[in-house]
Amino acid sequence: NKVIEGEKLRKELHNNILELKGNIRVFCRVRPLLPDEGSSTEGKIISYPTSMEASGRGIELTQNGQKHSFTYDKVFAPDASQEEVFIEISQLVQSALDGYKVCIFAYGQTGSGKTYTMMGRPGHPEEKGLIPRSLEQIFQTKQSQQPQGWKYEMQSSSEGTPTRVENGTPGKQYTIKHDANGNTHVSDLTVVDVQSVKEVAFLLNQAANSRSVGKTQMNEQSSRSHFVFTLRLYGVNESTDQQAQGILNLIDLAGSERLSRSGSTGDRLKETQAINKSLSSLSDVIFALAKKEDHIPFRNSKLTYLLQPCLGGDSKTLMFVNISPDQASAGESLCSLRFASRVNACEIGTPRCHT
Ligand code: ADP
Known about the structure:
Elements: H1 2-19, E1 25-30, E2 46-47, E3 58-63, E4 66-71, E5 74-76, H2 82-97, E6 101-107, H3 114-118, H4 130-144, E7 150-161, H5 163-166, E8 176-178, E9 184-186, E10 192-194, H6 197-210, E11 226-237, E12 243-252, H7 259-262, H8 266-290, H9 302-307, E13 316-323, H10 330-344
Parallel strand pairs: 1-5, 1-13, 6-12, 6-13
Antiparallel strand pairs: 2-3, 3-4, 7-10, 7-11, 8-9, 11-12
Helix pairs in contact: 2-4
The structure holds adenosine-5'-diphosphate (ADP).
The site of adenosine-5'-diphosphate (ADP) has 16 residues, from helix 3.
Protein name: Kinesin motor domain-containing protein
Domain Kinesin motor: 23-346
Family: Belongs to the TRAFAC class myosin-kinesin ATPase superfamily. Kinesin family. KIN-14 subfamily.
């Protein structure tokens, strides 16, 4: 029965996603107030238009007495559970198994909930994030499709892409090469064949721990690099000879805060500048793809060059814009919401409508 239910849900989600056509989908997620933020939040800055309540797509932010309204494909209020959020993206995970190239980004200022959305809260398995949940789904599907002849092989890699290198200061030197077969080779990156959820979880932990973490005023654990988790899926159906080669990229972007607010100086300031540069390179690529320009500036940052094969074409892209409900962050939140609106308006690639 569970299987039939699951299959029904999957079909429904599939139809919902197809309705969204070829644009970049954007989901907005507002995190709850943290215990030490209460006092700075007299007067709520976030509200949800009642006309939009049923669809769950609208959000309003009030700054300096002015209300700004936005609409996205989905808005998650602070009470949305990790499971509810995952249900909305699980079809994209299935798409990767079906042979699509999928990118899911988390964008927002430091402390807005990007890592919580992607990884979850350490030590709280019920609050695990999109990456571990996606892996579980993939391994479950892998097993359940075996009787129909499908066999999957997987390779996983995860790495913080070094914003420092782009800035010219010493850091890990990566070279990225795309070969004629559409494979991407990154020096110094460990790509491993994976057989079980446990193996991937171990690798993920290692990568997350080695991520460059520095201190700024924004957040003690402020992450100063992008974190890219890539899972390559090679599927072969031994009875029909069908093949599927999909890629799932889950990307926790470095904080988007502006220089003045991060309070960075010295090396940290240089890093913040480099992060801003690579985030603007990402938006340049997205907007160039949307305008169908002849030249797409993939090579302007390591991040966009790494993801080149997975952006545009018939790939599927989803961006989470993570928002803090704290009054002190209203300016940054407004910037993030505006950026996300521009991204949401983009139509890139060819919509694939198959059943
Ligand atoms: P970022 O990765 O954007 O810097 P984090 O994911 O580290 O931000 O979130 C900042 C803090 O808020 C963390 O303590 C995190 O556990 C908490 N948090 C973020 N989102 C949620 C949420 N939806 N529910 C509960 N706590 C959250």
